[in-house]
Prior knowledge:
Number of helices: 5
Largest sheet: 6 strands, antiparallel
Order of helices and strands: HHEEHHEEEEEHE
Amino acid sequence: MKRALISLCLLLGACASPPPLPPEASPAPKDPVAAKLQDQYRQWRGVKYRLGGTTKNGVDCSAFTQITFRDQFATALSRTTAAQVKEGRWVGQGELLAGDLVFFKIGRSRHVGIYQGQGLFLHASTSQGVMLSSLKDPYWQAHYWTARRIL
């Protein structure tokens, strides 16, 4: 009985694996733009979404991109997604670089985030607040609209 219990514990322990490192725990990127975006993510991660919000008490997607560009890159962006999609220059999805704005059409709504590299973008999600998401996620692939290079 004791032997069976020890064997079971060893078996179960061997199946357990540590959770993957969260993106903020990964090594600092060599790209200075990606490093600044990672810093912004550390500061804002989990801040709740609030339509019209512009603070850490609640922020919407376009305010988050505006604040990030102001604080991390000393670059002014317009306040709304409709205005931001007209700034900078168009970039193809296969040419994205860290710092490019990525836009999505979701029904009648528009959404914006900031490409961080490695297929990830930083944004203020209506469901989970400020977070990193993958452009490879079927939801975001289905709603991808365009991208703009500001920097």
